[in-house]
Amino acid sequence: MDGIEIQQYNDEIESLRTKMMQTAVAMGLNHPKVLEYSQKLDEKHNLILQIKYKQRSEEMSVSAR
Description:
This protein has helices at 2-27, 32-63. It is an all-alpha fold. It is elongated, with a radius of gyration of 16 Å. The model has no long low-confidence stretch (mean pLDDT 94).
């Protein structure tokens, strides 16, 4: 399940990255929409990191037994 979830987040990240770059080219780097996309990208990256941290914690817990 986590692998599928991570892939979905990666797909969303690529889509957001494309939108952010297109918006930056069209409206400039300082446009509020560019910042909005950047923040959404950060949120998706953080979600992936949380999943990976959880996976590693679970793996360490199992190997410690």
